[in-house]
Write a structure and sequence with these properties.
alpha+beta; 6-stranded mixed β-sheet; 7 helices; 226 residues; two-stranded antiparallel ribbon
């Protein structure tokens, strides 16, 4: 995005954001260094479902793809182990319930955001730019708003930040965030996950990133080519 440096001014800058409010009154502080990984919690062991077993077999692939996460997206971590995300539920742009399984065949960059999350405001135009450039039959950015209440504030947020390419996905119930938190994948917002066409978690990140730059494009191309 054209003014990305205003939000991500230096490669070694420590970005701290206070996230407060709608998610069950939770307060979380992110401290991340853009080129040195992130501080995500340990993942909870996956179950023994057929889908989880199939995903767990992709550990080497997850490590290979995550190794391509450098520079501005270096905080992305390989799933350990990869697990099925097919059941993650939210509402689609038409307002109807859907799950990650409905995106079968597509690599998905799933992002959770809220209007009260300052880092989300910074990275949303970058996610929009990535979708505009790389969105296709094989790749999609799915940015899910998790504000409580109606659609007024989220839609105004998207308009104010100039978002046009992203679809409007919603979960006002906190269930999606709590699911990821229970899996050991979410500390607060934003949180982003790379999910393959079979619904398997390949990599994940807590905190914001510059998704419109060459580092993000290389990551997507690696994920699609692996």
């Amino acid at each position: 995005m054209a003014d990305g440096n205003r939000f991500f001014p230096a490669p070694r800058l420590i970005l701290a954001a206070l996230v407060a409010g709608a998610l069950a009154g939770a307060v979380a502080v992110y401290v991340s260094e853009s080129r040195s990984g992130n501080n995500a919690p340990a993942q909870v062991a996956v179950g023994g479902s057929k889908d989880d077993v199939a995903c767990a077999a992709k550990s080497d692939r997850a490590k290979k793809i995550a190794a391509a996460a450098t520079g501005e997206v270096a905080a992305l971590l390989p799933a350990d182990p990869p697990q099925s995300m097919k059941s993650l539920a939210f509402n689609g742009p038409d307002g109807k319930p859907m799950t990650i399984a409905d995106h079968a065949g597509k690599t998905v960059l799933l992002n959770l955001w809220a209007t009260w999350c300052a880092p989300c405001r910074a990275e949303m135009p970058a996610l929009d730019a990535l979708q505009k450039e790389k969105g296709s039959d094989t790749f999609q950015v799915v940015a899910v708003n998790v504000d409580a209440g109606d659609d007024v504030k989220p839609k105004k947020f998207l308009k104010d930040t100039g978002v046009k390419a992203l679809g409007y996905y919603r979960d006002s119930t906190v269930a999606l965030f709590n699911d990821l938190k229970a899996r050991g994948l979410a500390l607060g917002l934003p949180v982003t996950m790379l999910i393959d066409g079979e619904g398997c978690l390949i990599a994940h990140m807590n905190g914001p990133a510059e998704w419109s730059g060459p580092d993000a494009r290389r990551l997507v191309e690696t994920a699609l080519g692996s």
